[in-house]
Amino acid sequence: MTAVSTSAQRSRPPLRKWLIVCAVILALGVLKAIYAWSQTHYILINQTQSLPHWAFIVEKGVLPGKGDMVAFTPGPNPYYPEDIAFVKIVRGVGGDMVTHEGVDLAINGERLGPNKALTGANPNVTPVDPGTVPEGLFFVWSPSPDSFDSRYKEIGYVGQGRIIGRARPLL
């Protein structure tokens, strides 16, 4: 009877091998899920203090609405590489009115704070012209007084071609 038990035990793979096979299958499943998620999302690390958050999840190709955070490329400008990603808040959309009220910039009459080009604090930037935000474009902004955003022509209004996607704070 002992001989039969021993041969039965030898024909069955040890528990350790089963655990290894299960761990490999689980790891492959996790890698596949991460790959699928990365096709529509990515994590962006903000390298400036323009927003209170420093990490964002970006939903690639999703256009933002007013009040949403958006990841975009700044386009040609004298200060940052064109392919770096910025995250700002959409404060104006097509049809909204941008005005200068003294040194402050306002959208639809709501003051967003000073424009350094108008205060003289930064003579190296050009204030955006007052007027209506064109359809299909976004006025992006950050509450930081040092933010490089649509207040300045060097960033200007952001078109869909420069938008990476809608951003959500992570950390």
Biggest sheet overview: 7 strands, antiparallel
Give the strand tally: 11
Low-pLDDT segments, ≥5 res: none
Number of domains: 2
Please report the number of helical segments: 3
Question: How helix-rich are the residues, as a percent range?
Answer: 10-25%
Distance linking N and C termini: 63 Å
CATH class annotation of the largest domain: Mainly Beta
CATH-assigned fold name of the largest domain: Umud Fragment, subunit A
Task: Based on Cα principal axes, name the global outline.
Answer: elongated
Structural class: alpha+beta
| CATH homologous superfamily caption of the largest domain | Umud Fragment, subunit A
Alpha-carbon Rg, integer: 26 Å
The succession of helices and strands, N to C, reads HHEEEEEEEHEEEE
Strand proportion: 25-35%
Q: How confident overall, as mean pLDDT?
A: 92
Topology:
Elements lengths: L1 H10 L3 H24 L2 E5 L9 E6 L8 E4 L13 E8 L3 E5 L2 E4 L2 E5 L1 H4 L11 E2 L4 E5 L16 E2 L3 E7 L2
Antiparallel strand pairs: 1-2, 2-11, 3-4, 3-11, 4-9, 5-6, 5-8, 6-7, 9-10
